[in-house]
Amino acid sequence: MTGETTASTDIMTRLKGEAKINGSDRRLATLMRLEQACDDILSGRALELAREHGWDKAYFLPHRRLVARSVDEYIRMRRYIAPKSSWTGPTKDTIAHDEHLASYLTARDTEREVARRPSRRGTKARAVDDIVAEKLDFNEQATVRAALESGRLAKRQFDTLAAFFHKLAGIDLRRLDAFSFEDVARSIRGQIGGDDRQALAKLVERLQDQVILMEMNLVLERGKVRMYDGLRSVLVERDELVVLARLAGLDPDSLVSIN
User: Fold this and answer.
1) What pTM did the predictor assign?
2) What value, to the nearest 5°, has the Cα angle with vertex 49 and ends 46 and 51?
């Protein structure tokens, strides 16, 4: 909804307002550094800087919690990059002893967790993401992550397909090194015994017998078994009759009036 703000934004707005009212430039500068530190850590900019300047990347990885030590590491890194800069704080001790700074940091971390919760992944996926983030630059990360997502989607689709065939006919696709749909079809047909095929063949034969069908006010027309009285109600569709024929071991093309 337009106009809504996050808890962290509300906290920071209040703290900056108080600093301005009190005329505390030092407090205002500390707040602005804390805000930028959080922004850079959560956006991945801190990780990129650490890679460029050989700094320890551990606290800037995507799935690490945003804590006072994260900010402290960022401050120290910025001071290492530019020793004469104004990056003097806040340190982890300053945050630990200031409930207002600590509440802002907690709010930023909580909001980050909520934002990514719908796509939360398992331990293995998070480990892979950390490796990608640590080893590759932004452009390379995008390419690799797109490929990983494509692979994950393909696996989900395969798992769904495998579960369907396993439920349908007890076929475990995961145990097959390679398969085709014809392999699956043969496997399903193989589970139908000779007596089953004979019974299906008799059913197909009756569904083609116009005399028997007429006794029930039915007719076989263009491969469909339908009512004869002109209501056009269909009992057996053409593709259904073809499936029955195949399961019975018959050649669908040889069926009477199938075309």
Assistant:
1) 0.48
2) 110
58-91 pLDDT per residue, tens: 888 877 889 999 999 999 999 999 988 889 989 9
Q: Is the pLDDT assigned to residue 198 strictly greater than 50?
A: yes
Query: Cα(150)–Cα(32) distance, rounded to whole angstroms?
Result: 39
CA distances from 48 to 108, 143, 165, 229 (A): 20, 17, 46, 77
Tens digits of residue pLDDT in 134-149: 656 655 656 666 666 6
Which position has the token pair 């057996």?
A: 236
- Residue whose C-alpha is closest to residue 47's, from 120, 109, 129, 110: 129
79: nearest Cα among 127, 33, 14: 33
Residue 226 forms beta bridges with which residues?
219, 234
Please choose, from the candidates 30, 54, 50, the residue with its C-alpha nearest in 3D space to the C-alpha of residue 41: 50
Please state, rounded to an integer, the average pLDDT across all residues of the chain: 76
